Amino acid sequence: MGNKPIFIDDTKRVFLKDMSYHIIPPIHSPNAAPPSLHHLFPPQDPRNPTMLPTSILQTFQFVFLIRKPSSAIPSLYRCFIPPLSDLTDERMLDPTELGYRELRILFEYLYPPASSPRSSEDDTPLLIDADDLLADPDRVISALCKRLRVPYSSSMLSWPSAEDHAYAKALFDKYVGYHEDALNSSGLRPTTMTTSQKDRSREVEDREWEE
Length: 211
Description:
By secondary structure, the chain is mostly helical. The chain has ten helices and two strands.
């Protein structure tokens, strides 16, 4: 399947944020499309690991946001222990819901390992490291917008108004406890990470989370 942008004009876009494991069946489940999509599947691409027809996948421009497991998993685990677990009402973190398997499967399906340089910038995966985003959000988001052919504005990096917060809280009300840091923030600002912080050993990282 091709990965070139489908929308190359100034029409409106729909932005979706989701996790790969929501469209890729878990290990114990067969790969099956929901009945409402059966008419779209034949002929099915045998390589397609998702529950969505290839024809639908081709209408998206995928942006992958990744974060080191040593940072992401402890951060998520906080939602399963007090005090956040009192908000989430969750007590057990299911490792199969971390999504790393499904993320890798989807990425390699959309962008198979290339034996030669990719023919154009549009064939290059949009892959963002969360550390890079936090270090320089203006540079990363403006570069992303350029690739997506979306006008960039620095206002994308801030949400200071009470109206912004009320709107976000209403949208995430069913996920209370999981996005408290984001909901209580007012924007993305550069964070400074020293070389020693970037190169911390696993033992040091484990000790920090235990403390």
